[in-house]
Write a structure and sequence with these properties.
The protein is an alpha/beta fold. It contains four helices and eight strands. The strands form three sheets. The chain has a four-stranded parallel β-sheet with strand order 1-4-5-6. Strands 2-3 form a two-stranded antiparallel ribbon. Helix 2 (48-64) runs parallel beside helix 4 (108-124).
């Protein structure tokens, strides 16, 4: 139906947050904080099974919709209202994998590493990865892959930096500026002495109304 009406579908299963439906039968993969409380919607990406779950879902959707070029994995609100400091398993994962995480890496680098790893899998299957911006840590040692399409929520997460337009000069043009000021209102008025009605005039220039002959 999408092809019939020239609509491009963007396949998405939001992860590693907002995964309650998929984690319902896999409580062992739910993120657990240092107090032992589970976040039922968050996938613990420090566990190897997390990557298997996310990529299995991506592969299933890719097989069902083979002609769609994108896979959107979400990535938003993973630590919204929370902190990586409450989850010591991330720091432990970084410490246990020095070959992956260079000196200076922190818990947030695990999120970047996970996104990049999923990106490699998606590209190997001929898709392009898309994510939301607000889950991406503002500071990290590991850079996010530059070929990941990052979609920005308005006024959420990091502020995107403008880039020079790469389109040909014949097609890349700055749109004309539109005035935001309203056009001046027009009105008519009737002379209370002679009854003459003067024509439409700018209400901001009411001093230009007609001169009544009866008033001299």
């Amino acid at each position: 139906m999408g092809q019939k009406y020239h609509i491009e579908l963007v396949l998405e299963v939001n992860s590693p947050g907002h995964m309650r439906p998929w984690l319902y039968d896999y409580p062992e993969l739910q993120l657990v904080n240092k107090s032992g409380n589970k976040k039922v919607e968050q996938l613990d990406i420090s566990k190897p099974e997390a990557f298997t779950m996310v990529t299995t879902l991506a592969d299933e959707y890719a097989a069902a919709f083979p002609d769609q070029p994108y896979w959107h994995m979400g990535g938003d609100e993973y630590m919204m209202g929370d902190s990586y400091a409450n989850y010591p398993q991330f720091a432990a994962f970084v410490a246990a994998n020095p070959a992956i995480f260079p000196v200076g890496s922190g818990p947030g680098d695990v999120f970047i590493w996970f996104m990049n790893k999923v990106n490699a899998h998606v590209k190997a299957n001929g898709k392009k990865l898309r994510i939301w911006n607000d889950g991406v840590p503002a500071v990290s040692t590991i850079p996010l892959d530059k070929d990941i399409v990052v979609e920005h929520w308005y006024n959420a997460g990091g502020t995107p930096s403008p880039r020079p337009c790469s389109m040909p000069a014949t097609t890349c043009r700055t749109p004309p500026r539109r005035s935001t000021s309203a056009a001046p209102a027009l009105t008519t008025s009737t002379c209370p002495t002679c009854g003459t009605q003067d024509g439409p005039q700018n209400v901001r220039r009411r001093h230009n109304r007609h001169r009544c002959p009866r008033q001299g």
